[in-house]
From TrEMBL:
One Gene Ontology cellular component: cytosol
Domain Luciferase-like: 21-318
GO molecular function per UniProt: oxidoreductase activity, acting on paired donors, with incorporation or reduction of molecular oxygen
Protein name, UniProt field: Luciferase family oxidoreductase, group 1
Organism: Gordonia neofelifaecis NRRL B-59395
Length: 344
């Protein structure tokens, strides 16, 4: 991995993609890394993305996962915004059932006041953790049932409308853009009903992708905008990516990622060895992981760009949000470098 932030221009690179590229950073804590080292890698990636043509970077709320350091997306957004100047930053997403809408309005309203025009708020209704996480957060699984009403409450806070006599300060009048995240038809229905952009988690749950997008586009109801216009549908899709000049190295990184995911999903309270996880690759557990990563774009940079272009065209995406998966930090950062859209 080089020390420079920007790579030398490569005139032989494949044609620019038809849709904008963004990044989903899970703030993965690699083997042998500390959390501080992981976040330093995330900062370096944000600074590179800021100087190239990526649209936005999002951080996903995860709890009780030692290998993921994105438990507090608002804190990461604030840190990365302070070290960048152009790129949009936000959550992909905040798991709203874990929080009161007022608290989120105040957090992201503060960010919007500090970094105007650069803050997004992606919202999901999954817990972002296990049952123990719910208990520790003083929440219950039934809180997810309030998700649609909580989204509307957030909209009211950002618009400056009092809710139960309370005005979000900061937050009021910031009109932070909201995005609905999902991996099922529920999120598509809600985004369509509210006239909001929709982001599908196809990087780990591709099963309902086409059906959800079709439903979203069919049922979309435009919402009024501040300038007197109306919102239009906006489809984002997430894609796992691993790009390297050595295609075999890229595919080996995908294999290692599958082994890591088998350990995470099927550990069952014990420390599964790498050999044990490898033995499951050809079984039902491996098939489940294969399905999760079915839409991964892996190979040389030109091959990956071509795969992403076909994917975006096939589903009618307006934007792709890329999730670099390689455990090797050189390949991980190299993926972001090699797929970067031209600087603006």
């Amino acid at each position: 991995m080089t020390d420079s932030v920007l790579p030398d221009p490569d005139a032989s690179r494949a044609a620019a993609p038809r849709v904008p590229f963004s990044l989903l950073d899970l703030a993965q804590v690699g083997a042998g890394e500390t959390v501080a080292e992981s976040l330093a890698h995330s900062r370096r990636m944000a600074q590179f993305a800021d100087q190239t043509g990526y649209e936005r970077i999002w951080y996903a709320e995860h709890h009780n996962m030692p290998a993921i350091a994105s438990a507090a997306p608002a804190v990461l957004v604030a840190h990365m915004a302070a070290h960048t100047s152009r790129i949009r930053l936000g959550s992909g997403g905040v798991m709203l059932p874990n929080h009161s809408p007022l608290a989120i309005a105040e957090q992201y309203g503060t960010l919007a006041e500090l970094y105007p025009g650069r803050i997004d708020l992606g919202l999901g209704r999954a817990p972002g953790g296990d049952h123990a996480t719910f208990t520790a957060l003083r929440r219950t699984p039934s809180d997810a049932e309030n998700f649609p009403a909580d989204v509307v409450e957030l909209q009211r806070y950002f618009a400056g409308t009092p809710v139960h006599g309370v005005i979000a300060t900061p937050g009021s009048g910031t009109h932070v853009p909201l995005y609905i995240l999902g991996s099922s038809l529920f999120g598509a229905q809600l985004a369509a009903a509210l006239g909001l952009p929709y982001a599908f988690a196809s990087h780990f749950a591709p099963q309902a992708l086409e059906q959800a997008i079709s439903l979203y586009l069919r049922d979309f109801r435009p919402a009024p905008t501040r300038d007197g216009g109306e919102t239009a549908p906006h489809v984002m899709a997430a894609a796992t990516v691993i790009a390297d000049d050595d295609a075999d190295r890229a595919h080996e990184q995908l294999r290692q990622a599958k082994i890591h995911r088998i350990k995470f999903l099927f550990n069952r309270g014990r420390n599964m060895t790498t050999a044990e996880a490898e033995a499951l690759l050809d079984g039902p557990q491996g098939a489940q992981v294969d399905e999760m990563l079915r839409l991964a774009a892996v190979g040389t940079p030109d091959d990956v760009l071509a795969q992403l272009d076909r994917f975006a065209q096939r589903i009618g995406a307006d934007e792709l949000i890329l999730a670099p998966l390689a455990g090797d930090r050189d390949v991980w950062f190299g993926t972001v470098e090699k797929l970067a859209p031209p600087a603006r």
